[in-house]
Amino acid sequence: MKSIDEALGLVLDGLAPLDAERVPLAGAVGRVAAAPALSAVDLPPFDRSAMDGYAVRAADTAAGVPLRLVGGVAAGEVAAAALEPGTATRISTGAALPAGADAILRSEDATEAGGAVVPAGPVPDGRHVRYRGEDLRAGDVLAQPGSVLSLPRVSALASAGAGEVAVHRRPRVHLLVTGSELLPLGAPPEPGRIHESNGLMVRLLAGRAGASVTDHGIVGDDREATRAAIETGLAGDVLVVSGGVSVGPHDHVRPAFADCGVDELFWRVRIKPGKPLWFGRAGATLVFGLPGNPLSTIVCFCVFIAPALRRLAGERDARPALEPGRLAAPAEASDGRTTFLTAALRAGADGVLEATPTERQGSHMTGALGESDGFVVAPETAGPLPAGAAVDVLRLR
Ligand code: AMP
Ligand code: MG
Q1: Could you tell me if 171 and 309 are in contact, meaning their C-beta atoms sit under 8 angstroms apart?
Q2: What are the residues facing 183 on neighbouring strands?
Q3: Nearest residue CA, atom 14 of ligand 1?
Q4: CB-ligand 1 contact for 194 (6 Å cutoff)
Q5: Ligand located closest to 294 CA
Q6: From ligand 1's centre to the CA of 196, what distance in Å?
Q7: Fewest CB within a 10 Å sphere: which of 17, 22, 183, 393?
């Protein structure tokens, strides 16, 4: 049986980002740059006013000395003529400076009377002027390859005239849920059957990890039906199969993987919940067999599949999204496996996330999951952890 680190190494090592595509900036937030994203223009693109007021020649300005008012230039306009000595022109915030002008006299520092404007005092050269290129130059790199296009980066790219960016393609996940007992979301109860939740979780978590999902629905516990569904599902970058990877007589997924030529890289990991996790490859397609317990599915997805999807989507160093935290009550791994305990998570007085394991624990404990904010990790080798111990937490929102 593999440790989590060994298993994660088999999933992530050598995983390369998917090929690039160009997408409109409007759809680029959260995607990963596949090439340097550049400023298309100098910013500002021209010398412009930072204030509402008057464009002037600084050398002409002195307290109480009138300047003849000539025309005006609003944002988006270009002055028809150069500013002559001894004159001023009205200018709006963001408007281009007329040729000959070299400073802005703010409205609040001047009075207007009889076709002239009178400064309250001299205006220094360059006052309230934003010069061409002082912010950015055309060709400046705003996002390096491999960086996530965050909201601030996308805002800067928009200002810098970029309409599209090169990003890594989204991973395509195919999803198959197995189990003859499973009822679709919200279906009326039936004897002997339970409602399925793993498919929903995989769709949500895969979406958060930047993937698109093709859902092949629920397949009953039948060897041939399972094989046929897996064969169809091997069409994307990743196939996720829920359930049926254990050793029961109705667990057909592992033999079906073999029938479909999927090579096993590991089966079973020292993780709780989630021990029966299966991973293999068919060509370039990553194939995960998730244990059917809803808590196992969530934990295994977050620990193994989400980082793989993020790497395919271009994040070079993606790892499981664990955060540092602190135990508020004692905890311990069980069965010699790194244990993910459902926990309430609250920021302590010092801002550190405090994790209180729920009273009930177990991969079948839906109620405990529902009252938790995620999981706290008790490592397999750590022994009993006292309250106050530093731990990793997996926060789920
Ligand atoms: P399995 O891994 O198929 O042996 O399933 C383990 C447990 O998880 C069984 O109690 C199943 O009924 C349950 N289970 C399997 N698949 C799902 C699912 N999609 N949603 C909720 N529970 C499931
Ligand atoms: Mg099953």
Answers
A1: yes
A2: 195
A3: 292
A4: yes
A5: 1
A6: 8
A7: 22
CA distance 263 to 282: 6
For residue 138, what are its two tokens? 């055309």
Tokens of 123: 């205006």
Ligand 1 binding pocket includes 221 (Cβ within 6 Å)? no
User: Which is it for strands 271-272 and 338-347: parallel, antiparallel or unpaired?
Assistant: parallel
In tens, the pLDDT along 326-365 reads 999 999 999 999 999 999 999 999 999 999 999 888 767 8
Look up the pTM and report it: 0.92
Amino acid making up residue 120? A
- The tokens describing 365, both together, are 């404990």
Residue 375 and residue 391: Cα distance in Å, rounded?
10
Distance CA 308, CA 320 (A): 9
> Which tokens go with 214?
């093709």
Beta-carbon contacts of residue 78 (< 8 Å; ≥ 6 apart): 96
User: In 3-state terms, what secondary structure has residue 171?
Assistant: coil
pLDDT tens readout for residues 277-322: 999 999 999 999 999 999 999 999 999 999 999 999 999 999 999 9
State the Cα–Cα distance between residues 339 and 176, nearest whole angstrom. 26
CA–CA dist 270, 250 (Å, integer): 23
Largest CA distance in the chain: 98
248 alpha carbon to ligand 2 midpoint, in Å? 8
**What ligand has the least distance to the C-alpha of 198?**
1
